[in-house]
Amino acid sequence: MNLRKNAITAGLVMVVMIVLLGILYPLAVTGVSQVLFPGNANGQQIHRGGKLIGSKLIGQSFSDPKIKNGKAVEEEGEPVTEPDPRYFQTRPSATAPADNASATTFSNLGPNNKTTEEAIAEHVKAYLEMERPYDPSLTAAQVPVDAADSSASGVDPQISQANARIQAHRVAAVRHLPLQQIMKLVSQNTAGRTLGIFGEPGVNVLELNLALDQLTGGTR
Question: Buried-most residue among 102, 107, 192, 209 (CB within 10 A)?
């Protein structure tokens, strides 16, 4: 009799807790967040012309398919892309393909790991190949850390001011715009430290590129 009573009591407690913590509490939290913080609750989505184009919280790739002999180049069944020089680029991404929000990941390798060292060296080389034609004085020692290494999530939406200012030379040259005008856009799209003391100022790449397209009247 006691066993049956205990089993019934345990079952009722389980049902009550499921309803309370599995249904009512999540609904309450969701409702409050939608009322007080709708932007954050919905992932800081960015819309243009009624169309969802991205999120302030997730980096996205600004690249084009690599074409050879009139055909898109593929490796292991995946299209090969190359950065679009008209746009600012995010930091290196550890996801496959780059900036893949459905597969956020990081290498989990230490800073002294050989694989990490080789990856950083490749990123620095690629960065110099892309930026030095527009800024001949640029050296490997001047390449910002966020241009050489991936973030923990692999989809960081921001780059450092130093990184953006270097890329500004390329964007200005390719778009035939004054460098000072592009630098001004960088400053306008730079977010300060959290609460004024945490972290470093960062430049949201998606917002910056949207501002760039708005300035020139072009779209991707």
Answer: 209
